[in-house]
């Protein structure tokens, strides 16, 4: 893997056939105002993917920021179109009521105003088997009706993935978005996803800055002449993940993804893998019943 393999232009092909930017900006815990300022900065810096959710309460602002930037000739100097930007949202909670989920997807689509949602995920496996499967049927129908391009899940453990795949879905999930970083490597779930051809998106790839001063991280950042954040993003990419680093600061938003100038050796990747302590920085529904 050559050291300049990864940039904001890097893409991964999803099982749905669509491509997804391999580096994206996570919009978790961003206020509407922060989203309105961060997305234009990110688009101008070269970001092409944005990860929102119903639970983030910023879908309207995310869609507005993307639309405004695309329609501004002074910002969008290269004439990018809607299809050049990848937008993700997620269902707040699974329900056994199919109609409720269908309406919820339509309201997300309305909120962003982007014409379609590139990737729509079930945000967690909470609710039980019937709710998960009914909710997935609603995602399949949203895809077939053109509201959503690709579907997936988030925070699904191995059992939930096997359950969904075992239900013989009409459309297979393209993505499972879970917390992954060197301090929570999630090897079991990643292995299950690999078995089913599901792409893994890594949220919290910087471990929410909780381990930036870890001695191993600091030593390797010094060795590779990069920041601890760049090291952790590069680790994600070399594992074939799609990391969603989050920052509201323009300089950091640009800096975090400058990872083409170095490549972590196999030995040092293994050293970082060894830091796993199953650190959960927010929530972990992957073992929900």
UniProtKB/TrEMBL annotation:
InterPro entries for this protein: AKR, NAD(P)_OxRdtase_dom_sf, NADP_OxRdtase_dom
| Record: residues binding substrate | 123
A Pfam entry, by short name: Aldo_ket_red
Site annotated as Lowers pKa of active site Tyr: where? 90
**Molecular function terms from GO:** oxidoreductase activity, acting on the CH-OH group of donors, NAD or NADP as acceptor
**Domain of life (superkingdom):** Eukaryota
Q: Which keywords accompany this UniProt record?
A: Oxidoreductase
Tell me the CDD domains matching this sequence.
Answer: AKR_AKR1-5-like
Catalytic residues (positions): 56 (proton donor)
| Domain NADP-dependent oxidoreductase positions | 31-276
This chain belongs to the protein called: Aldo-keto reductase family 1 member E1
Q: Which organism is it from?
A: Pseudomassariella vexata
């Amino acid at each position: 893997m050559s050291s300049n393999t990864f940039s904001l232009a890097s893409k991964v092909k999803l099982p749905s056939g669509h491509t997804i930017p391999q580096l994206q900006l996570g919009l978790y815990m961003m206020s509407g105002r922060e989203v309105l300022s961060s997305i234009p900065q990110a688009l101008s810096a070269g970001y092409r993917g944005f990860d929102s959710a119903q639970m983030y309460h910023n879908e309207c602002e995310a869609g507005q920021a993307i639309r405004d930037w695309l329609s501004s000739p002074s910002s969008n100097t290269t004439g990018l179109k809607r299809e050049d930007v990848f937008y993700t949202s997620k269902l707040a909670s699974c329900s056994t009521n199919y109609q409720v989920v269908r309406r919820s997807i339509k309201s997300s689509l309305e909120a962003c105003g982007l014409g379609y949602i590139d990737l729509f995920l079930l945000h967690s496996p909470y609710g039980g088997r019937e709710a998960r499967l009914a909710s997935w049927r609603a995602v399949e129908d949203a895809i077939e009706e053109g509201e959503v391009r690709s579907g997936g899940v988030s925070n699904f453990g191995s059992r939930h993935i096997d359950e969904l795949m075992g239900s013989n879905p009409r459309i297979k999930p393209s993505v499972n978005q879970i917390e992954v970083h060197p301090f929570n490597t999630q090897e079991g779930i990643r292995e299950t996803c690999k078995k089913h051809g599901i792409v893994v998106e890594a949220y919290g790839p910087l471990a929410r800055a909780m381990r930036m001063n870890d001695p191993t991280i600091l030593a390797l950042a010094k060795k590779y002449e990069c920041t601890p954040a760049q090291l952790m993003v590069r680790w994600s990419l070399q594992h074939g993940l799609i990391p969603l680093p989050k920052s509201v600061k323009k300089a950091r938003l640009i800096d975090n993804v400058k990872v083409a100038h170095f490549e972590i050796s196999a030995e040092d990747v293994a050293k970082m893998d060894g830091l796993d302590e199953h650190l959960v920085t927010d929530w972990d529904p992957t073992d929900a019943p």
